[in-house]
């Protein structure tokens, strides 16, 4: 096909078109595109083809309008008339001929479209215009062929978008056609096409009502079209249409007002968005039509509406403005509209008006005049709270109900800014008075409002005290109130700081469960299910069912007697040695016996009989029959509860379990068993022996760390500064100097198990108290310190190095510090403890990073003793377990994540304030290491398995959250902005970008949840530090500041900005066949942009950074990145919707100071650059800054004045 077309093209343009129209458009599209795009400007076809197109289009159009009469020979008889109502003879052939003409016109229209879009610009617009006009003028004629009309519309659209000559002649038929098509087919793509041609509508004279009536009616149909109201492009187009003329705006507002009572939620939301956009963008003389002629009426109607449905619909439309109240001028508008009538309406006699005014006040809260003084604002806020509190006592139940729930919503949203006395007074009234209201709807609103308020964690302190006052509502005589109470309790169950049984007692819940309606009982069953049927203890089901029966049986004594007999039966069955019992059955019986014993010991009357039933010897013999770790754990728990005096008989077994703890962190079953051993030892006063065992094992491992790796630490008597000198003689270093019977790796594995036990014990209040009061705690800390140091330094070298020694060491230091916070003297001790630990940990990490930078692959010798050569009694100990590169990286990342967690916790306690710069540098170094590792994974230098990659992503997610919190804490407490915080913020964004580039958007989205809460802090770290460091400087200081900032950014250039620049360039180039697919980064970028808009100080700081980065890229001759960064600044960040503001850069002083340095550099590079493509990039970059530059050169003289001074 293509060969035939090319052959005909060589003959003449007419021959080419004649061959082309014989084909269908679908089959010939690829060939036509290839042939037309290959035509060069110098070819004869560039002039002959447009002329041939015009003649062919005119010929086919005339043939379609005037089909020839059917031809028949003069001597032939007339055809016989057929019976019925069938078509006359020859009608089928006429129809086929007409269809063939339309098909030919489709091909001709497509060829014309290809000529317009020719990449080589081979065809003159003057030559193509007559053909385009011929098609456009007959668009209405071909309405029977949608495909042809669409091709013609494409021709006209391309002509308009290309800004070709006389483009206004090709829109008269086009715009009504596109409007009609979008309303008929109801497709989003057609709405988008209308929106892209919106500027063409301004060419019509909408004041001439007769000539424009049809187009105006189409526009009014668009106003009520759900498709236009629900799509972004549709809303933007309608808001633009409202600005075309005053009469059109009046008609549109009238249509909107008429549709409000009938509109659905999405339609009403669309009306609100359209009106807001139109108000924001319209000129001042037309803005009054919206404010005075429409909005004032909406507010008045929302207050005086006769039905609640109509009032709700009106407030939905107002919501388009309320949701945008941060936009300049909106708050003032809402205040001026509502204030004159809303306070008066809250106190009128009509309860319906009071209810409507209350709803509106809650939507507008806090209503304030932005131009008022602080005193006036506070007075107005007090007035609003006074009226809301007063309405809780309104005579109308509906008003009281809305007031209660609305106040809870206000407290949820604005808890931080409302005075505490106001909150306490109002919430106390809700609990004391409103929960006892006679109206069930008010009681229901009370419960629903408190449930809503609980979602704000800051309310938990006061609610924990007041919530028990709602307990009586669980027995309310209205079902809906009881259901709401169940929902409240279900919410409380998932909040760690609350216990639902303190709000409603367990007896009441079980009583309601037994007697209430089904849906109430089902809710209580859901509430109690996790307590009575734990998902992780499937073998306990029989036991928990028994326990439920015990709690619900009114004959408690008889039930408890049965429980004792059941325990005896279970244990006798095990001790009988029945071969039929399998391991899982024995485990289930022991777990059931333990659960029943736990219930029985709560009753003091049963304790004596239980001890008689279970003597110590009987319990001790059970250990021989316990087949699993969980079963042994149950035996130890029963021993601790029933017969703790027999612990001395099983102490050896307990200590064996404690010592043989290699691999414990990864074995959940053994962990449960170990906790039971700890509980038993704690209850029997044998805990000091446990601590001594810990110290002995850790000191032995610490000694071997010193021998194998040369790791020694300085011992300072800080940990025991607040207690008496140790009398223990067991914790001496000399006892570990005997010959080792096992390898260092096995020794270290046991030490890891000990570290896990220490960290787990510190989470238990009684065990933590016993550890902190131990006289040997200093020896324990020093041993952990040595093992932790080795774990950190060898983390990337040895397979068996684990994070738990570091976790135990840092956790112990934190708890020791927390214990010493009561007095000023103890506060100093706490700070010394944290200082020593923090300094040691950071020193280790600095040495670890230095070794990585130097490429050290062997084990690391201690930096503090460079001259000391460690002894190696068993040289293979240190080299055993050398791990793969991937394993070493993952181990190192886990270690650094644990250290970062400790740093954040210490900073939050306020005990590491003078380490701010150092911890920020550590965090940056860690994130850079993670970035490098992900980069190596993407390039194949590292090849992580799927499981390891998921662990790496999990560490990156946790580290991102910790780093964000660290920035928040540091910036909140720092007296001056820190450039280290700026670097860390960029490193976090660099890590996010690298994760998406290297492993994909799915993994990057997991980091979004960790990054999202800290985005405002990142934004503040990125910009204002430069503002605060550059404002109010003398000229010489300003030059030094500019140079230091330039050099800092040049040294630590943010790579995420390079990627953002690439995204901008891809968005600019619509013809690019490859698009940068980074959806997560795009969403993050858009979030940052939306967050900073409206805050000129933050925009000024970030904009200054972008200009500095552009200057660095100019120096590097990276003009693509320069163009992308400046487009991101001018188009995204500054959003050129307000043209005048864009030219002035109001309140962007820091950016304006830097502009005279950067703009001349761009001009110079344009004049010196020889590469044409690079010059185009520089010219495009200059065009972005040109409006601001010319404005301040010719309008304000700011830059010229600066040049003269220089």
From TrEMBL:
Q: By its UniProt entry, which PANTHER family does this protein fall under?
A: CONDENSIN-2 COMPLEX SUBUNIT G2 (PTHR16199)
Q: Name one Pfam family in it.
A: Condensin2nSMC
Any one GO CC term of this protein is: nucleus
Query: Which Gene Ontology BP annotations are present?
Result: mitotic sister chromatid segregation
Compositional bias, Pro residues, is annotated for: 66-79
Q: Which regions span the lipid bilayer?
A: none
| Protein's recorded name | Condensin-2 complex subunit G2
**Where is the sequence biased in composition, kind Basic residues?**
865-874
Where are the stretches annotated Disordered?
A: 61-98, 861-882
Q: In which domain of life is the source organism classified?
A: Eukaryota
UniProt-listed SUPFAM superfamilies = ARM repeat
């Amino acid at each position: 096909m293509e060969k035939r077309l090319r052959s005909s093209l060589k003959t003449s343009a007419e021959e080419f078109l004649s061959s082309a129209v014989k084909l269908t458009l679908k089959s010939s599209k690829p060939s036509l595109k290839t042939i037309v795009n290959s035509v060069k400007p110098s070819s004869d076809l560039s002039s002959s083809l447009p002329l041939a197109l015009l003649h062919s289009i005119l010929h086919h159009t005339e043939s379609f309008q005037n089909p020839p009469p059917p031809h028949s020979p003069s001597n032939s008889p007339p055809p016989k008339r057929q019976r019925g109502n069938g078509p006359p003879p020859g009608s089928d052939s006429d129809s086929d001929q007409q269809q063939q003409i339309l098909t030919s016109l489709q091909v001709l229209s497509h060829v014309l479209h290809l000529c317009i879009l020719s990449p080589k610009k081979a065809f003159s617009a003057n030559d193509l215009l007559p053909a385009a006009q011929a098609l456009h003028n007959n668009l209405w004629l071909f309405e029977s062929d949608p495909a042809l009309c669409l091709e013609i519309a494409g021709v006209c659209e391309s002509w308009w978008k290309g800004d070709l000559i006389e483009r206004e002649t090709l829109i008269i038929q086009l715009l009504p056609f596109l409007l009609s098509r979008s309303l008929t087919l109801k497709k989003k793509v057609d709405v988008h096409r209308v929106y892209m041609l919106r500027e063409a509508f301004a060419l019509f004279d909408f004041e001439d009502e007769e000539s424009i009536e049809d187009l105006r009616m189409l526009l009014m149909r668009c106003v009520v079209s759900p498709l236009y109201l629900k799509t972004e492009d549709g809303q933007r187009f309608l808001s633009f249409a409202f600005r075309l003329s005053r009469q059109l705006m009046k008609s549109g507002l009238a249509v909107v007002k008429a549709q409000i009572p009938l509109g659905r939620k999405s339609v009403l939301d669309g009306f609100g968005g359209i009106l807001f956009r139109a108000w924001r963008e319209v000129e001042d003389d037309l803005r009054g039509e919206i404010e005075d002629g429409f909005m004032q009426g909406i507010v008045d109607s929302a207050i005086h509406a006769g039905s609640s449905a109509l009032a709700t619909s009106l407030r939905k439309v107002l919501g388009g403005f309320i949701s945008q109240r941060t936009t300049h001028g909106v708050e003032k508008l809402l205040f001026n509209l509502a204030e004159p009538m809303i306070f008066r309406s809250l106190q009128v006699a009509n309860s319906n008006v009071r209810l409507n005014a209350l709803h509106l006040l809650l939507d507008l809260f806090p209503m304030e005049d932005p131009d008022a003084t602080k005193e006036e604002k506070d007075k107005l806020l007090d007035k609003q709270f006074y009226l809301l509190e007063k309405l809780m006592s309104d005579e109308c139940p509906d008003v009281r109900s809305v007031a209660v729930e609305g106040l809870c919503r206000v407290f949820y949203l604005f808890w931080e800014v409302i005075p505490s006395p106001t909150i306490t007074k109002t919430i106390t009234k809700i609990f004391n008075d409103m929960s006892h209201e006679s109206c069930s709807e008010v009681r229901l609103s009370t419960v629903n409002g408190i449930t809503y308020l609980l979602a704000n964690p800051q309310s938990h302190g006061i609610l924990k005290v007041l919530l028990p006052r709602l307990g009586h509502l669980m027995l309310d005589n209205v079902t809906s109130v009881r259901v709401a109470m169940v929902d409240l309790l279900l919410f409380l169950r998932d909040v760690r700081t609350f216990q639902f049984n303190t709000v409603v007692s367990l007896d009441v819940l079980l009583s309601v469960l037994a007697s209430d309606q089904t849906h109430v009982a089902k809710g209580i069953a859901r509430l109690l299910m996790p307590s009575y049927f734990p998902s992780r203890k499937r073998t306990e089901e029989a036991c928990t069912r028994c326990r439920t029966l015990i709690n619900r049986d009114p004959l408690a004594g008889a039930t408890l007697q049965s429980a004792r007999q059941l325990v005896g039966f279970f244990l006798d069955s095990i001790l009988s040695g029945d071969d039929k019992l399998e391991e899982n059955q024995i485990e289930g019986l022991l777990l059931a016996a333990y659960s029943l014993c736990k219930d029985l010991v709560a009753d003091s009357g049963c304790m004596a009989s239980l001890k008689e039933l279970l003597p110590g010897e009987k319990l001790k013999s059970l250990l021989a029959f316990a087949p699993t770790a969980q079963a042994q754990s149950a035996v130890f728990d029963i021993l601790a509860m029933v017969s703790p005096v027999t612990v001395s008989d099983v102490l050896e077994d307990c200590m064996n379990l404690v010592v043989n703890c290699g691999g414990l962190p990864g074995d959940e079953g053994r962990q449960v068993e170990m906790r039971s051993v700890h509980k038993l030892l704690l209850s029997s006063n044998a805990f000091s022996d446990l601590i001594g065992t810990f110290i002995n094992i850790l000191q032995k491992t610490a000694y071997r760390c010193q021998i194998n790796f040369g790791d020694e630490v300085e011992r300072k008597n800080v940990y025991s500064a607040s207690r008496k000198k140790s009398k223990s003689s067991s914790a001496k270093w000399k006892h570990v100097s005997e010959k080792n019977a096992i390898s260092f790796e096995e020794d270290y594995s046991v030490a890891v198990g000990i570290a896990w036990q220490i960290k787990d014990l510190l989470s238990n209040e009684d065990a933590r108290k016993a550890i902190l009061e131990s006289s040997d705690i200093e020896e324990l800390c020093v041993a952990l310190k040595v093992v932790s140091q080795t774990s950190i330094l060898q983390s990337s070298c040895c397979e068996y190095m684990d994070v738990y020694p570091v976790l135990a060491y840092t956790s112990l230091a934190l708890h020791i510090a927390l214990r010493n916070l009561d007095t000023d003297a103890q506060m100093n001790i706490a700070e010394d403890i944290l200082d020593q630990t923090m300094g040691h940990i950071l020193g280790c990490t600095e040495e670890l990073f230095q070794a990585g930078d130097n490429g050290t692959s062997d084990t690391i010798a201690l930096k503090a003793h460079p001259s000391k050569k460690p002894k190696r009694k068993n040289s293979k100990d240190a080299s055993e377990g050398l791990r793969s590169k991937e394993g070493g990286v993952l181990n190192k990342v886990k270690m650094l994540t644990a250290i970062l967690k400790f740093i954040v916790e210490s900073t939050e306690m306020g005990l590491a304030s003078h380490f701010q710069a150092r911890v920020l540098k550590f965090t940056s170094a860690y994130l850079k290491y993670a970035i490098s590792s992900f980069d190596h994974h993407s390039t194949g230098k590292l090849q992580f398995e799927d499981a390891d990659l998921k662990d790496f992503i999990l560490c990156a997610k946790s580290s991102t959250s910790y780093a964000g919190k660290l920035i928040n804490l540091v910036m909140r407490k720092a007296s001056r902005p820190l450039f280290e915080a700026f670097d860390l913020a960029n490193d976090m964004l660099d890590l996010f970008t690298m994760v998406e580039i290297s492993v994909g958007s799915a993994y990057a989205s997991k980091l979004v949840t960790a990054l999202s809460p800290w985005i405002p802090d990142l934004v503040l770290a990125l910009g204002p530090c430069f503002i605060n460091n550059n404002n109010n400087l003398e000229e010489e200081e300003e030059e030094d500041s500019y140079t230091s900032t330039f050099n800092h950014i040049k040294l630590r250039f943010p790579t995420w900005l390079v990627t953002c620049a690439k995204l901008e360039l891809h968005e600019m180039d619509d013809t690019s066949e490859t698009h940068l697919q980074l959806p997560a980064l795009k969403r993050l970028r858009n979030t940052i942009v939306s967050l900073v808009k409206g805050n000129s100080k933050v925009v000024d700081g970030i904009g200054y950074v972008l200009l500095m980065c552009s200057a660095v890229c100019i120096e590097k001759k990276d003009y693509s990145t320069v163009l992308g960064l400046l487009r991101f600044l001018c188009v995204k960040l500054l959003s050129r919707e307000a043209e005048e503001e864009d030219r002035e850069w109001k309140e962007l002083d820091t950016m304006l100071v830097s502009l005279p340095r950067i703009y001349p550099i761009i001009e110079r590079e344009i004049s010196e650059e020889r590469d044409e493509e690079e010059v185009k990039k520089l010219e495009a970059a200059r065009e972005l800054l040109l409006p601001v530059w010319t404005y301040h050169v010719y309008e304000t003289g700011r830059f010229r004045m600066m040049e003269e001074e220089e």
